[in-house]
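Backbone shapes recur. Consider a single case.
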Amino acid sequence: MHAPVRVVAAWLALAAGAPAFAAPPAAGRYDARLCVTLGAGAPSCGPVDTQVLGGNRVLVRVSDIVYRLQLHSSQVEVVLMHGALPIDEFVANYEWAAGPVLGFVDVDKRTRYELHFAAPAR
């Protein structure tokens, strides 16, 4: 299967309501990597500061931008913040993969996000 076809298939599975099958890692700070794929392009990945909070909340910091994630049973509420100013928000279906990796898609913007957790930060 070609890469663009795999990306579209993943988007369709998430948009169709693929069920969540795991939970976030334990509360704490993590070394992580965020990969963002626009359209059928190649993913752009980089290190991010990630904190898992109680209540299925995750904060992901990329420089001065923070993604506030609130995980529900099958959907994630995403609020993108620049300081105290919200600059974008959307709700998406999400899935967990081994690693653990949190994946979700902003269907309107044709953008896929994958948050790859590594070891807890020191």
